[in-house]
Amino acid sequence: MKKLALVVSAICLSVSAVAASDEPVAARKALMDANAASAGLAGAMMKGDLAYNPAIAKAALLTLNASAKTFGSFFPEGSQEGDTTASPKIWEDAAGFQAALDKYMADTSAAVAAAGRDGPADLDAFKAAVGPVLGNCRSCHENFRVQQN
């Protein structure tokens, strides 16, 4: 369990470190890696593959929320080129992308608030908090990410 807590802490720190990056594509990838790790922890707890732990659940929610608050800064015009799976739709439909980011920020903030100081009280509370957040991830990937075969 201590190893898992250290992994989550490292994820949280990586989100903070990425915020200082000058390279938007690299920053987006690092934020996505942090999100994927947090979503993986959430999924493992929800499936029962990992014992539910409120502190780990809270750390995953905090990581998702931290990335939600900074993610939009790493899609400047011109950053759609290069090694990225960001869809051109991000820049073609900037208002739609911003609306998706706003929903993600609102849902991650609500999940953190619902988690309370010590994390969600039980697995059902965690599922209720993280469910809408993970739905945002899925929706954004479907609408604003180039699908790879």
Report what the structure shows.
The chain is mainly alpha-helical and 149 residues long. The chain has a single domain, classed as Cytochrome c/b562 (Four Helix Bundle (Hemerythrin (Met), subunit A), Up-down Bundle). It contains six helices and no strands. It has helices at 2-18, 24-47, 54-70, 89-92, 94-115, 123-144. The N and C termini lie far apart (36 Å).
Order of helices and strands: HHHHHH
Domain count: the total is: 1
Radius of gyration: 15 Å
Architecture per CATH nomenclature, i.e. the level-2 architecture:
Up-down Bundle
Helix-residue proportion: over 70%
Signal peptide: 1-19
Organism: Nitratireductor pacificus pht-3B
GO molecular function: electron transfer activity; heme binding; iron ion binding
Protein name: Cytochrome c signal peptide protein
Notable characteristics:
single chain, mainly alpha, Four Helix Bundle (Hemerythrin (Met), subunit A), 149 residues, Cyt_c/b562, elongated, signal
Question: Summarize this, please?
Answer:
With 149 residues, this protein is mainly α. The chain has six helices and no strands.
What is the fold's blueprint, element by element?
Blueprint: H1 2-18, H2 24-47, H3 54-70, H4 89-92, H5 94-115, H6 123-144
Helix pairs in contact: 1-2, 1-3, 2-3, 2-6, 3-5, 3-6, 5-6
